[in-house]
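hey so u asked for the seq, here:
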Amino acid sequence: MSKTLPPLRLKKNEERRLKAGHLWVYSNEIDTDKTPLKDFSPGTAVSIEDSQGHVLGNAYVNPHSLISARLISRDTKYVLDQSLITHRLNIALSLREQCFSQPFYRLVHGEGDNLPGLIVDRFADVLVVQITTAGMEMQKQAIIAALEKTLKPAAIVLRNDSPSRKAEELDSYVETASGTLPESVLLEENNTRFEIDVLSGQKTGWFYDHRMNRARMQHYVKDKRVLDVFSYIGGWGIQALTAGANEVMCIDTSAKAVDRIHHNASLNKVDDKLVSVEGDAFEALKSLRQERERFDVVIIDPPAFIKRKKDFKEGLTAYRRINQMALQVLNKGGYLVSASCSFHLTRAQLHDTILKASRHIDRNAQIIEQGHQGPDHPVHPAITETDYLKAFITRILSN
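ran it, structure tokens below
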């Protein structure tokens, strides 16, 4: 027998998006006369109803968030609990094991894996979890138990310090929730080894979403001089070296990240071909141009310059400027690898940015390959926000 949940009633015709496949309910879609949002505690399980009282499925609610409810199941028999989380973890795991021969991948990608508000990255027997919603936070112990049952990890780390938790009015914290964290956490990607910091590194310590794009990049770097801007801990640059680049220069603002780049280069026995610059990417590119430095491949993978809609104009200017500056230090016939993780910058807009940058320096651009996020970051076809990553490999030629 299914559990009876308190109803959350939608206004007339506001069920159309849900029926079309979406999982989110916005606060302005709720009939607050019949079901006042203030009556619900953050994370409460609810039954979503259309304006006529017909049940659409089960969800969890947060009256403090613009996205006030997230659908968990269209079958009312299922609520968010350890059993459902375990079932969906197994479904997610089966995809990753189909795609990857080694246990290094994003295991759960929120809405893309029908577990909204939950991210899990796997580094062999270490799991790093990000919980971003109140509904998932209420299931924290169930999540840990489900992960232990499914994978029996050595350690589970909670990186619950993402900015998105503020919108849900959740506290920020980092803790080892289960097991004992080893002294070093290692991963392997595209035949390259990395040691990462899962407690204080960016996000979960690594960005698996660009795995396929980094593999594409490796085809163009043999015997080349490569510049990796916004290097973080060397994901692109060190993989260029293991693919046969003659020299790689990495640029990052963080001294800690630069130290980690050299450590990871040493892990792969390529430190003798690595040069690093600690500093602002824009200033570093300006200096390289003034010094007449030139590279055969330039990689631009910046942080999101456009985090919110209101940042669009300023962010677009930053994307245009950084791509233009990258081309100014690129040899004729060289390759630009340009990426964006900003959902608000469309693929077409990044395409246009590269075109305009090439014309600014009076060069012809030849797009060779286009990339997106890997299969461990599945896109929910009804939720455009889950399709965020763009990458272009472009050859820059004389007129």
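The longest strand covers residues 330-340. The chain has a mean pLDDT of 96.
lmk if thats what u needed
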